[in-house]
Amino acid sequence: MLQLCAVSIDHVDAVRLNAELQQEYRIRYGGEDTTPIDPTQFDAPRGLFVVGYVDGAAVGCGGWRARDGGEDPELRSGDAEIKRMYVAAAHRGRGYARAILAELERTAAAAGRQRAVLESGTHQPESVALYRSSGYEPIPAFGRYRDSPNSLFFGKPLAVPSGRATRAPRTGDRASTTTER
């Protein structure tokens, strides 16, 4: 069973998983993702980072950060950018990435974000398939890789919960999403 926990992006497990992700990028693209990341961008209420654990071992991660219209002409006020989605190779094919993505969407919506946006790549067919099957559709390019021929950009409207006050989980809160294998 996958248990998702909100952590700081500089938590030891998040750092290790992000290092594995960067190695994956080196293999697939010949270099790392050079998008600037400020760890505070993933702090509530304007962001969140989660690590997925199976039997106490960190097996996957992902986060969202608030992005608003003034930062990039293609982004809108209320956007949440999905970043650093990763599942370790030995744990792929079990639905963990889908569970992480669903939790990121849920918490972004709970924080009042209206749309999830992301950049993926042509050498990541598994990721692209996940996003398309999760309701993401192509959007105009944005950010550091807007001119890269290897980049693909997707967005999805988020359903903001109605009729109740919500908050994004604080670092250290247990996320509510679990998934069985």
Automatic annotation (TrEMBL):
Keyword Nucleotide-binding: no
Source organism, top-level taxon: Bacteria
Alphabetical UniProt keywords: Acyltransferase, Transferase
Residues annotated as domain N-acetyltransferase: 9-159
Disordered, as annotated region: 157-181
Annotated CDD domains: NAT_SF
Descriptive protein name: GNAT family N-acetyltransferase
Organism this protein belongs to: Pseudonocardia yunnanensis
Higher taxonomy: Bacteria, Bacillati, Actinomycetota, Actinomycetes, Pseudonocardiales
